[in-house]
Amino acid sequence: MSSKLRVAVIGAKGRIGSEAVRAIEAADDMELVAAIGRGDKLETLAEAGAQVAVELTTPASVMGNLDFCVRHGIHAVVGTTGWTEDRLTQLTTWLDDSPDTGVLIAPNFSIGAVLTMKFAQIAAPYFESVEVVELHHPNKVDAPSGTATRTAQLIAAARAEAGCAPQPDATTTALDGARGADVQGVPVHAVRLRGLLAHQEVLLGGEGETLTIRHDSLHHSSFMPGILLGVRRVVTTPGLTFGLENFLDLG
Ligand SMILES: NC(=O)C1=CN([C@@H]2O[C@H](COP(=O)(O)OP(=O)(O)OC[C@H]3O[C@@H](n4cnc5c(N)ncnc54)[C@H](O)[C@@H]3O)[C@@H](O)[C@H]2O)C=CC1
Ligand SMILES: O=C(O)C1=N[C@H](C(=O)O)C[C@H](O)C1
How far, in Å, from the CA of 222 to the mean position of ligand 2? Predict the structure, then answer.
């Protein structure tokens, strides 16, 4: 039997899934053993002997797919969004029953986005105000993006740890949504615009100065090195790993 990693893609016909299929086919140390689309049987994964499934579908489909993978001891690299505390708890429970299986959930596979989150986390305690603006293609089904939600959570945690005061905001009258979504006290704004792919700005403001951290994914190829890294690392990392930064040496 070949020593290549046996990899499947679930959501193989989607925007990122089809790019992932090409990247896995081109990787010397991987073999694409299944490409699953909507309506295809998950049993194909087990029949094909997949060691790792790359899950790139929709928030509505991801839990059912992961339930199957974990029950069959198939490691998973997950880019699909829609993660809540309840979902993470459910997934952890499944993993407890399959202790050798690893699942990586990466809100964003691109190195620039991972660094944006890290930089925002570092900067957040030093400014009075911080807001997140994410900008995506109009076919995206969820808002705010998984990346923006994670960024805001990391910012909120960093500010709480540093003992920062709540952000200044004198708004008393506003149209619904005008101040964005409130993610743990951090406003998050979602733009949907034809022509865009995936972009994010973290705006920080202090007395007499602002700092803007901006990242642009201009092509789905930006996510591929992160997906391949995730596949290589998840097979030796049992349990739940949340965030690609855990597989990068960011200091
Ligand atoms: N973590 C990251 O770096 C990235 C994450 N994403 C996320 O990945 C997900 C997919 O994004 P896109 O490719 O843009 O969406 P898409 O709509 O182009 O693709 C999703 C695909 O999954 C298929 N699908 C749905 N349910 C399925 C099921 N039960 N079994 C098999 N296939 C199923 C759909 O038919 C579709 O082909 C989204 O949640 C998006 O936010 C997207 C880009 C980067
Ligand atoms: O739907 C997308 O396109 C993307 N989804 C992910 C998210 O919601 O953060 C990652 C990236 O922003 C592209």
Answer: 11
Which ligand has its closest atom nearest to the C-alpha of 78?
Answer: 1
Mean pLDDT of the chain: 97
Kindly give the residue spans of alpha helices, DSSP state H, lying in 85-241: 85-96, 111-123, 146-162, 224-234
Task: With a threshold of 0.95, tell me whether the complex ipTM lies above it.
Answer: yes
State residue 103 phi and psi, 5-degree precision: -130, 125
Give the per-residue SS3 of 202-237: EEEEECCEEEEEEEEECCHHHHHHHHHHHHHHHCCC
Q: How far is CA 183 from the centre of its chain?
A: 16
Centre of ligand 1 from the C-alpha of residue 122, in Å: 31
Q: Is the CB of 78 under 6 A from ligand 1?
A: no
For the packed helices 111-123 and 224-234, what is the interaxial angle rounded to 10 degrees?
A: 90
Does 136 qualify as catalytic in the annotation?
Answer: yes
* % pLDDT > 70, the chain: 100
Is 226 known as a binding-site position? no
Q: Note the pLDDT tens digit of each residue in 183-226.
A: 999 999 999 999 999 999 999 999 999 999 999 999 999 999 99
Annotated ligand binding at 210? The verdict is no
149 has binding-site annotation = no
Q: Is 4 noted as a catalytic residue in this protein?
A: no
Strand order in the sheet with 186-192: 181-183, 186-192, 129-136, 198-206, 209-217
